[in-house]
């Protein structure tokens, strides 16, 4: 276990250290600076922009930027939905996989277009290689790039002074795909292939078992999917069991690489913010605030899993290696808990252990990560979510000291607060209403054989399963608590619609907010200004995030994981 | 009949997705007017 603790410390320290380097690289990429990869990636970027007839000089205000983002996403949705709905007739399908069912296709495509990657299907039996490459992998690149583009435009707005234009969405998305995700994904793919992850066009392998029976072993274009699913905070695995599968995550070293891949870009986004708004101390304050929530969650989550599950202890089973039910022996309890927290504070959603098997309070940590959804968060969108809390914290602090709230020299007025409230309130609304509706439907379904009787484990744990599903969909996370019969019309349609709404509302409102701030003249800071790059503001921001999180979600936490924990005592 | 129902459901799913995107275009206008 002590080796596991050392691995956790090394993983976090290495990710923090490398984020300072990547943040600088990203700053140069998005401000047109020179990088050492320009000779290779520059021509690719120019070729894509020329082929798509995008003029890099064409600047967009927040409204055109948002509409371009939506239009591109509508076309992506229609194109990729067509592929999975007709995959049976398309090439690269050596295992003869059929077309995807309508509601499942709606859910799957809405899930991948929104960077959620909630999976109600199993990749090895539900998708052809063509779909894996041109739907799953394609969307994992471009939707992650969409999030980065939205964040870059938002940051430009924050840095602006009487600024109308926030950049060009198509240029930013292309730049993020080609100059950021492509080189990193190639690097990670090669590293995990070295560790044993397959990358092949050959169909499933056939093996003869010791009993003399024939067994099909699925494989395929795995490394390419896994690298971008981690880096783009996507999480959509190649195989159903995601990174618990020995082909997706073969060794402790591949586990280290994949854990690093989850947080590296969200962490680097904050570093990039400091460079772009020319306030390194502000970036340090936001980064430290995020760490001050992330690290206690890791410590608490690891402590819960390493201590073992109370119900298994009661059975007299030795748990000296921690709560290992639902976990992989090659990773152990501690590194599984680190992944569970990391994948949910960012909106990644990949798993290296079954979250349904976590201890009740260990399972609360992933829920908390998705409820806050801004502790590093999804690539781009996590920072945008934190910006909303920053605006609220500025407003609260301004009210407390009796001054007009200001952020970076711009007055925060009614319009900004209304936009921040729209983005902030959608999140609990979708989670809580969705969970309430699903609870009602399940509770009023009398027939145990009905598709609506989706719980195998009722009581507080079953409540947590439904709560988790809507939290995951709303946070665009994509991980599943499992144990829930979720490939049904209700779950496919409800979570599909929630994922779409929960992707764009928290992007569009903050873009409008940033543009509103950008249009204002920046007043010079005086001794009377609220300093946002101070430790005091960091503590205020931390308290605002924690208190708002508690106010919004404490009741459901008590009904689910906390009630389950108390019932086991 | 079963094929017809499946086609209707497929069509319904596309309409639902497009309606949700349309709502988001409307949300852009709402944010402008806030």
What's this entry about, in short?
The complex is a heterodimer of chains A (569) and B (34). Chain A is an all-alpha fold and 569 residues long.
Describe the structure.
The complex is a heterodimer of chains A (569) and B (34). With 569 residues, chain A is mainly α. Chain A has helices at 2-30, 38-51, 62-85, 102-113, 123-126, 129-159, 169-195, 222-231, 252-276, 280-306, 310-314, 332-345, 360-372, 381-401, 414-443, 460-474, 489-518, 535-568, and strands spanning 60-61, 165-167, 205-208, 214-217, 406-407, 410-411. In chain A, helix 1 (2-30) packs parallel to helix 12. Chain A is globular. Chain B has 34 residues and is mostly helical. Chain B is 94% helix and 0% strand. Chain B has one helix and no strands. Chain B has one helix at 2-33. The radius of gyration of chain B is 15 Å and the shape is rod-shaped. Chain A binds chain B through residues 63, 66-67, 70, 73-74, 77-78, 81, 85, 102-103, 105-106, 109-110, 415, 418-419, 422, 493, 496-497, 500-501, 504-505, 508-509, 512, and chain B through 6, 9-10, 12-14, 16-18, 20-21, 23-25, 27-28, 31-32, 34.
Outline the fold blueprint.
The complex is a heterodimer of chains A (569) and B (34).
Chain A lengths: L1 H29 L7 H14 L8 E2 H24 L16 H12 L9 H4 L2 H31 L5 E3 L1 H27 L9 E4 L5 E4 L4 H10 L20 H25 L3 H27 L3 H5 L17 H14 L14 H13 L8 H21 L4 E2 L2 E2 L2 H30 L16 H15 L14 H30 L16 H34 L1
Antiparallel strand pairs in A: 1-2, 3-4, 5-6
Helix pairs in contact in A: 1-9, 1-12, 2-7, 3-4, 3-6, 3-17, 4-17, 6-7, 6-8, 6-17, 7-8, 7-9, 8-9, 9-10, 10-12, 10-13, 10-18, 12-13, 13-16, 13-18, 14-15, 14-18, 15-16, 15-17, 16-17, 16-18
Chain B lengths: L1 H32 L1
How can the largest sheet of chain A be summarized?
Answer: 2 strands, antiparallel
The average pLDDT score of chain A comes to: 94
- Tell me, what's the shape of chain B? rod-shaped
The greatest inter-chain interface is formed by: A-B, 30 and 19 residues
Secondary structure tally: strands of chain B:
0
Derived from helix and strand composition plus strand pairing, the structural class of chain A reads mainly alpha
Percent of sequence in beta strands of chain A: under 5%
Largest sheet, strands/sense/barrel of chain B:
none
What is the subunit organization of this protein? heterodimer
Helix-strand topology string of chain A: HHEHHHHEHEEHHHHHHHEEHHHH
Q: SS-based structural class of chain B?
A: mainly alpha
Strand order of the largest sheet of chain A: 1-2
Q: End-to-end distance of chain A, in Å?
A: 25 Å
Provide the residue-averaged pLDDT of chain B.
Answer: 93
Count of individual helical segments of chain A? 18
Strand % of chain B is under 5%
Number of extended strands of chain A: 6
Which ranges of chain A are low-confidence, i.e. pLDDT below 50, for 5 or more consecutive residues?
Answer: none
Question: Ranges of chain B with pLDDT <50 over ≥5 residues?
Answer: none
Helix content of chain A: 55-70%
């Amino acid at each position: 276990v002590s080796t596991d603790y050392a691995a956790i410390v090394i993983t976090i320290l290495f990710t923090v250290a490398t984020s300072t380097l990547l943040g600088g690289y990203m700053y140069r990429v998005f401000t047109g600076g020179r990088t050492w990869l320009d000779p290779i990636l520059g021509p690719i970027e120019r070729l894509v922009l020329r082929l798509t007839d995008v003029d890099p000089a064409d600047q967009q205000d927040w409204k055109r930027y948002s509409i371009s983002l939506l239009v591109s996403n509508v076309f992506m949705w229609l194109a990729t939905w067509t592929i999975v709905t007709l995959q049976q007739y398309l090439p690269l399908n050596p295992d003869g996989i059929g077309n995807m069912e309508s509601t499942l296709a709606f859910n799957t495509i809405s899930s991948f277009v929104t960077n959620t990657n909630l999976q109600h299907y199993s990749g090895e039996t539900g998708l052809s290689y063509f779909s894996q490459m041109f739907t799953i992998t394609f969307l994992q690149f471009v939707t992650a790039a969409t999030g980065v583009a939205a964040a870059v435009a938002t940051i430009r707005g924050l840095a602006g002074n009487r600024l109308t234009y926030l950049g060009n969405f198509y240029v930013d998305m292309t730049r993020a795909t080609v100059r950021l995700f492509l080189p990193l994904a190639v690097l990670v793919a090669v590293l995990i292939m070295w560790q044993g992850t397959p990358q092949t066009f050959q169909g499933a392998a056939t093996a003869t078992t010791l009993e003399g029976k024939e067994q099909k072993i699925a494989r395929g274009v795995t490394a390419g999917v896994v690298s971008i699913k981690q880096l783009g905070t996507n999480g959509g695995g190649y195989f159903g069991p995601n990174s618990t599968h020995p082909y997706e995550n073969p060794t402790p070293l591949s586990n280290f690489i994949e854990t690093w891949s989850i947080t590296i870009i969200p962490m680097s986004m904050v570093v990039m913010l400091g460079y772009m708004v020319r306030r390194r101390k502000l970036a340090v304050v936001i980064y430290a605030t995020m760490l001050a929530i992330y690290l206690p969650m890791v410590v608490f989550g690891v402590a819960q899993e390493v201590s073992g599950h109370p119900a298994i202890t009661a059975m007299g089973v030795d748990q000296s290696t921690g709560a290992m039910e639902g976990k992989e022996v090659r990773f152990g309890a501690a590194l599984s808990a680190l992944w569970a927290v990391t994948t949910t504070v960012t909106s990644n959603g990949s798993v290296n252990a079954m979250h349904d098997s976590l201890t009740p309070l260990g399972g609360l940590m992933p829920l908390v990560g998705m409820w806050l959804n801004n502790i590093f968060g999804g690539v781009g969108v996590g920072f945008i979510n934190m910006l909303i809390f920053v605006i609220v914290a500025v407003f609260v602090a301004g009210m407390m000291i009796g001054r007009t709230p200001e952020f970076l020299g711009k007055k925060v007025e009614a319009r900004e607060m209304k936009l921040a409230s729209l983005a902030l309130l959608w999140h609990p609304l979708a989670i809580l209403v969705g969970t309430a509706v699903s609870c009602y439907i399940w509770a009023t379904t009398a027939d145990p054989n009905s598709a609506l009787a989706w719980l195998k484990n009722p009581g507080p744990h079953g409540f947590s399963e439904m709560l988790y599903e809507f939290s995951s969909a709303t946070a665009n996370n994509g991980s599943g608590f499992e144990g829930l019969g979720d490939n049904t019309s209700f779950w496919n349609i409800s979570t599909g619609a929630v994922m779409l709404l929960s992707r764009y509302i928290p992007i569009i409102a903050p873009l409008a907010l940033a543009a509103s701030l950008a249009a204002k003249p920046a007043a010079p800071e005086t001794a009377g200004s609220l300093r946002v790059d101070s430790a005091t503001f960091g503590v205020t921001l931390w308290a605002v995030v924690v208190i708002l999180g508690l106010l919004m979600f404490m009741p459901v936490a008590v009904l689910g994981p906390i009630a389950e924990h108390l019932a086991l005592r | 009949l079963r094929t017809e129902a499946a086609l209707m459901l497929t069509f319904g799913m596309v309409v639902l997705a497009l309606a949700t995107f349309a709502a988001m275009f409307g949300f852009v206008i709402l944010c402008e007017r806030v």
